Structures
1.
Amino acid sequence: KVCTFCIVPYVRGREVSKPFATVMKEVKALVASGVKEITLLGQNVNSYGKGLQGNPDFVGLLEALNEVQGLERLRFVTSHPKDADQRMMACFKNLGKVCEYLHLPAQSGSDRILKLMKRGYTSEEFIEKVEMARHYCPDIALSTDIIVGFPGETVEDFEDTLRLLERVQFDTIFSFKYSPRPHTVASRFKDDCPPQEKQRRLEVLQALQNEITRKRMQRFLGRIEEVLVEGPSERNPFQLCGRTRTNFVVNFNPMDGVQPGSLVRVRITEVLTNSLRGEIVGHRGNIISIPRAEEAHGY
């Protein structure tokens, strides 16, 4: 998959999958050293396995890693929508260590622009993937990538992208103004969207998403979330911070026995602009019995 705007294949070459046994060995070594969470990383991580002996696939890798003793959490980025099939989406329900977070780059909501980008799907097909993910995991957190001002993007095309955001209700987005990259196909297109218009579109897009994110994050207020402690809070060194399974940052006061790598149960007491605040109500080693958030909320 070589999108017309992407320079990565020209810099790093074609996709290559690391041998299955190598991945398993590396993960087991990391877990043995105390690592609790693993993120599988790839330009199109869910196309894993193509060309490998024995034809392992991405879902098979997730299933094998889910059985690794001592591993608590498993994430992966970045998934290409074209390869995001039902088997992959079902992993969010069937594999307990796979976190309820999916980054699925849309890039645009305009079918015409998606075709110029050579993305291999339409906006409706993308929405079908989102609906599939939410079918298996209703509370899944979704993020995406969006490019504004791609060559040939009209106001109508941009409005299609705004409609996509409104319809999907992503939790977060990563948004960018288009700029040509050398050697890419798109670099030969006429970059016909003026810089001021690209900036305007970016600001409109981000304002819309900020409001969507604000509303989406409200669902966490009062809930008890599993949080993996990462270390001191960036803004308050007297507090700790960590991430929920849905990849949101949570800040909270410390408790005896809680340190980086601990899994704690945190009741969310405040929703901020880009993070959550809470209080610890239990952690591994305590006799306090706190239900997991997904058990408490029926998914």
2.
Amino acid sequence: MLKPVKTPCLIMFLIYNLKIDKRLFMFGFFNRFLSHDLAIDLGTANTLIYAKDKGVILNEPSIISVQENEHHQESTIAIGTEAKKMLGRTPASIRVVRPMKDGVIADFELTGKMLKHFIRKATEGRPSRVVICVPYGATQVERKTIAESAKAAGASDVFLIEEPMAAALGAGLPVNEAAGCMIVDIGGGTTEIGILAMNEVVYANSIRTAGNAFDEAITLYARREFGVIIGDVTAENIKQTIGTAYPVENVESMIITGRSISRGTPRTFSINSNEVFEALKDPLNRIIQAIITSLELTPPELASDIISRGLVLAGGGALLSNMDRLLSEATGLPVIIAENPLCCVARGTGYALDLIGTQHPILSQIP
């Protein structure tokens, strides 16, 4: 009877007989154990990192600030939360940049620096495998750019999952069943709409109207109605504090300070909830129209499933007051807000870590 070979003996056997460099072998062997598989929601507004058995371990703004010297060379000043604090408060020599736009990479170099920083901050080990979500309909060039950015940050293998599927998994929808379910993920740069059944995206649509478009609409409203220029941070604060997707009886208001267009001096004005609703009408209507179009193109049998199960809302946009009421009235469907909607995509991408190596159809690998 053969005796089992102990692991240390097997390692020495391989090194001796296969003439493997001992230092390289031991480095790779231990690095494998020290590495972490990560799931990343690389969003336009925020980047979330999910680690297996730990959940979401990082949630920071997708922002980086860089400074240019006299030789036109740029150096990184701050990334994430610290960089966001600088928005609208920097001298001409410092740029505060969102390197992601509409869910895809707008600046490859800065995205790589930002991602590398977030991965190092989230975990001390070098990640061996990474799953990243991408907007539905992203081109092959955009997908490859995202994968290359992750590899530049230290990943050895990169897998992609489409955002509607990730959001559905994170929301706990039964995507493996032979029955339809619907997810609407309103993020920072895009709204992802998905009809799913049997582990497949039956129909999906991605529109570049979401949280950032809400902020821009509030900024334009303040300029048009009050003659005041406000910054992105102020617009976001208005949206989060008194924003509503439906007219309300109990009106709330805020005192806001901006810069007068006519005089160029600071000016204070008051804005209320229903005025914010008026500001948001156009982007809200674009989202409603995209959802209605998706329902019109859904196969009848799946449509009947969705009528009984309802529509599930995820993403930061789900937190806009009365968003569920607006969409329910516009579509005639029950609308359910997912638990912790901000983390749905990251959570669903994290669940996909277990599918690496299984040839599961919801994951695609970029060589």
3.
Amino acid sequence: MKARSTVFFVLLALLAVGFGVYGTTIANAEKGLEGEIPMGAVWSLTGDAAVYGSSQKNASILAVDEINKSGMLGTAKIKLITEDDRSTKEGAIAAFDNLIKKNKVIAILGPTLSNSAKASNPIAQESKVIVLGVSNTAGGIVEIGDFIFRDSLPESAVQPNTIQMTMDKLGYKKVAVMYGDDDVFTKGGYDVFKKVLEEKGIQVLTTETFKRKDTDFSAQLTKIKGLNPEQIIVSALAEEAAGIMTQGRQLGIPESVHFIGGNGFNSPKLAQLAGPFAEGAISGAAWFIGNDTPGNKAFVEAYKARYGSNPDQFAAQAYAGVYILAHAIKTAGSADSKAVRDVLAKIKDLDTVLGKFSMNEKRDPVHSPVVQIIKNGKFELFQ
């Protein structure tokens, strides 16, 4: 009888372990979750990167409201605390400091810009608070430490595909290059473009630089026009990119010469700023509004119904980021930063609006990029 009882309890223990390993049930997850779970978000809501930050804020609020209403975390609710970094490194540092020390958040979404992330992420790493960057694509971000993640594809994962697809379709062999040399994102994007162009044997006729907040690009563009490139590769944020496109067309650079860029192009604000001069601009992207990915149609409809406009890539990545963090919290069955971090590091094939989403060993995202082109003021897939 004693032996049978021992076997019985051993089997019960094995079953308990099995449930823990093979499927954290909603009931198990809910046991360790209650009350409010403080989550921070740092967006550029003012300053020159507000074109990206406003949609990130909207999408993160939408996602939190959906998750709290659905009971995904049982009786626990996410409390989202949003800070404006003013599009500056100093603003991001102050926002992180406030969220970590005053609000005791377990994780922070953002900041909007890679420049700011380089400055603020070390604060979270030192405090062992998770950061999930949702628009940081420059190199050297996740390398800051093991609490730093991102769901935004790095330029190194997007631009090789962009160059290959545009080469195949447009058949170019000679390009001119322009990039901002005083910003981590634009300099990082240039570094990737430079490497890929060299690997593909594309001749670079000239490389021209500019600074953030520059408004006059006529000297660089006049030189470029005289060299007759087949395409122009640009690593720039939206405001500078719009100025480059506008002035380039006004100087007589033909529409057959496309402006090809990266993540900085992926805001509808670009077409609003440059108007008809943005037509034909091509960019590598992590998301397309018409994607047939899990929940994407519902997300687009919900965002438009609530905010009166379509979401952009930055909204989609912020929305996905909230759900990715919520999934990790639920699976961990805990709001402890280390426990949630351990789950984040192992995410594989999670259904998101970005597609099947995984984290690699470097804490970088893995999913398929796209290439899009502006036609009639809107993004379409480049095919």
